[in-house]
Amino acid sequence: METSDRPDLTDGATGSASPRAALEAARAAFREEIAATIEAPGPMTYGSQAAAASHVFEQQRDLALRDRAIAQLALVEGALIRLDDGSYGRCLRCGGPIAGGRLEALPWAELCIACARIVGPGGAG
């Protein structure tokens, strides 16, 4: 989801976003992305191999983006559960606080910056 696609969730008085509003908006956006139809390649005719290859590439890209949206949706759902049980904003690895700026940028973050660096890319939150 690109930044320009995100709704404005800031509170006009404070300029800060409500974590629940940000997570619910992200959940809606990821659900919409997952529900989008991915068009299968049509029948190939002689001389259309290049067009068919382009279409297959686009389909594979769209499937990868859908997989990413499914994974992101799971993180958002987890963050909403943590928000409800009072553990939102605490690192799942060390139990320390997750910086407010990190949560503003990535409301579904599961790890503080230090733990995210340890876990590395592809790790949780």
Low-confidence stretches: 1-15
Mean pLDDT equals 83
DSSP summary, beta strand count: 0
**What is the SS-derived class?**
mainly alpha
Q: Residue share in helices?
A: 40-55%
Task: Tell me the number of helical segments per DSSP (H or I, 4 or more residues long).
Answer: 4
End-to-end Cα distance, whole Å, is 16 Å
Radius of gyration computed on alpha carbons: 19 Å
The protein's oligomeric status is: single chain
Largest β sheet strand count, sense and barrel closure: none
The topology string of helices and strands comes to: HHHH
Q: How large is the share of residues in beta strands?
A: under 5%
Question: What sort of overall outline do the alpha carbons produce when their principal axes are compared?
Answer: elongated
Map the helices and strands:
Elements: H1 19-35, H2 49-85, H3 100-105, H4 113-119
Helix pairs in contact: 1-2
Describe the structure in your own words.
The chain is an all-alpha fold. It has a domain at about 5-85. Helices cover about 55% and strands about 0% of the residues. α1 (about 20-35) runs antiparallel to α2 (about 50-85).
Please outline what is shown here.
By secondary structure, the chain is mainly alpha-helical. It has four helices and no strands. The N terminus is likely disordered.
Notable features of this structure?
125 residues; mainly alpha; 4 helices; elongated; disordered N terminus
